[in-house]
Amino acid sequence: EVVAVKTFDDIAEEQLVRITSSAEKNYDHPLSQAIINYYNGDDLYDAQEFEVEVGMGITCTINDKRCLVGNEKLFKKHDLTIPDDLKNHDEASTVIYTYYDNNFMGTFSIKDTPKQDIARVIKALKNDKYDVTLLTGDNYSVAEDIARQVNIDDVHSNCLPKDKLDFVDDLRRRLKKVIMVGDGINDASALKRANVGVAMGN
User: How many Cβ atoms from other residues are within 10 Å of residue 20's Cβ?
Assistant: First the structure.
């Protein structure tokens, strides 16, 4: 869920949230859904030229103006420097930046709440002698916070989809049987490579 919104310069929060939700509305990703749920409106703009930059975010045009929504990796790829004023945030949150019409508009801080009973499921898997690992694109602080809540000891943060795929490949090379659970979007390749892939969605 969105726990904080920060605007840049004189941008109104309502406009930041509306533009970002308009860009995210066609992307079935948990972070996108969190932002759309925060907006809770139906007067969204049409997003054109929509593209997913896997593990980083999305790009599109809104009202014929360029829009990027994503994490720091997305803006580094596009040679855009994030203003220092937008970098001060809770390290235990995932931060999404919005850039529109040649300007940064602001950020969303999002915290992931583990699904009910997931800690019990992890405990049962461990009792049955399964090794449990958390692979996530989130930063170290976010990953450690989630892992602590559900009692996972082996944590790999800042993972791109290829990192997850490489991890599964390494386990299989060592003749391990792998069950991969993911959102089916950024995790698609790793899900396919595992012995058993479980795609979770809304």
Answer: 27
Which helix (H) or strand (E) is 141 found in, with range? Answer: helix 140-150
Which 8-state DSSP code applies to residue 128?
A: T
Alpha-carbon gap, residue 133 to 115, rounded angstroms: 17
**CA pair distance 104, 199, nearest whole angstrom:** 34
Give strand ranges (E) for 15-150. 47-53, 57-62, 65-70, 94-100, 103-110, 133-135
Q: In this structure, what DSSP letter does residue 71 have?
A: -
pLDDT digits (tens, 9 = 90+) for 66-124: 999 999 999 999 999 999 989 877 777 899 999 999 999 999 999 888 888 999 999 99
Inter-residue contact 7 to 105 (CB < 8 Å):
yes
